[in-house]
Amino acid sequence: MDDELRSMFEKQGYAVVGNHSAVKTCHWLRESLMRDRVCYKQEFFGISSHRCLQMTPVANACNHRCLYCWRYQGKEDVSDVWDDPEKIVEGTIAAQRRLVAGFKGDERCDPAMWEEARAPNQVAISLTGEPTFYPYLGALIAAYRRRDFTTFLVTNGTMPHVLRDLDPLPTQLYVSLDAPNREIYRKLCLPQHEGLWDRIMETVQIMPSLDTRRVARHTLVEGWNVGYEEEYAEMDLKGDFDFIEPKGYVHVGYSRERLERSNMPSFERIRGFAERMSELTGYLKAGENPASKVILLSNGAKDMSIF
Questions:
Q1: Is the overall model pTM greater than 0.85, yes or no?
Q2: For residues 53 and 120, is the Cβ–Cβ distance under 8 A?
Q3: In what order do the strands lie in the sheet with 284-289?
Q4: SS (H, E, C) the chain
């Protein structure tokens, strides 16, 4: 990562680790420590919001330029020197400890929870960039696992060969399926290379062969990809996902340069989408969180909690 990018990320609150990785505390970690409000992932899956480490092994490389993405989408910086997975894990844990250090002096922060926050046990491999670009992703997941972490991996699904060969698999695998068809995908996700839609469809096809918890995430953008439940349902059933997660777009960050507030769907709109998906797939509602504008559907094959 060059100095200009590193400086930009640090000004935005990221802790850059090594040549291409980064950590940033999320809104819900702060809410959990300061106001005892938790992330929907804690409500749905049992992880502890204040012990969740949010990181990326590829801070600024992605083959999409999604209109709804609130992350920086400027200069792409694919490393030609890849850091060792063990060093990344140690570096991200150390960075998380530094990032939560300032909460200790606040009277609203419970001291016992603060100590737990310094010892994260869950990693969300997402944050920014496309993590499947990192060539040692399986070794990275294994390194976190050896430290008793659960691992959530979020991918855009454009690297099916990586997912097919990934060993070990994460505790939970999210695939972002944010367009119902090729034409909307081309306009909403702005793929940077030819053939990426076909790769996503290949990812959907291999999902049933991956022995882990699988989640189809649909980021709903009003005026763009809502109202195509039949096409989404066909994809989700083909992928035999354990969970379906309709989640509303939020007008924040860099997405404000490309979309309007009116592109945020109401929670009632999201609920209507989920209800129709339930009718089409047979999945049942397993949870909802209006604050995060998300609803969870489950086929009942897997227990909700990862613990």
A1: yes
A2: yes
A3: 15-17, 21-23, 52-56, 122-125, 150-155, 172-176, 213-220, 243-248, 294-298, 284-289
A4: CCHHHHHHHHHCCCEEECCCEEECCCHHHHHHHHHCCCCHHHHHHCCCHHHEEEEECCCCCCCCCCCCCCCCCCCCCCCCCCCCHHHHHHHHHHHHHHHHHHHCCCCCCCHHHHHHHCCCCEEEECCCCCHHHCCCHHHHHHHHHHCCCEEEEEECCCCHHHHHHCCCCCCEEEEECCCCCHHHHHHHCCCCCCCHHHHHHHHHHHHHHCCCEEEEEEEECCCCCCCCHHHHHHHHHHHCCCEEEEEECCCCHHHHHCCCHHHCCCHHHHHHHHHHHHHHHCCEEEEEEHHHCEEEEECCCCCCCCC
- pLDDT in the model for residue 75: 60
Average pLDDT over residues 93-120: 96
Domain boundaries along the sequence of the chain:
3-298
Q: Which CATH superfamily is domain 3-298 in?
A: Aldolase class I (3.20.20.70)
Q: In this model, does residue 186 exceed pLDDT 80?
A: yes
Mean pLDDT of the chain: 96
- Give per-residue pLDDT as tens, 30-58: 999 999 999 999 999 999 999 999 999 99
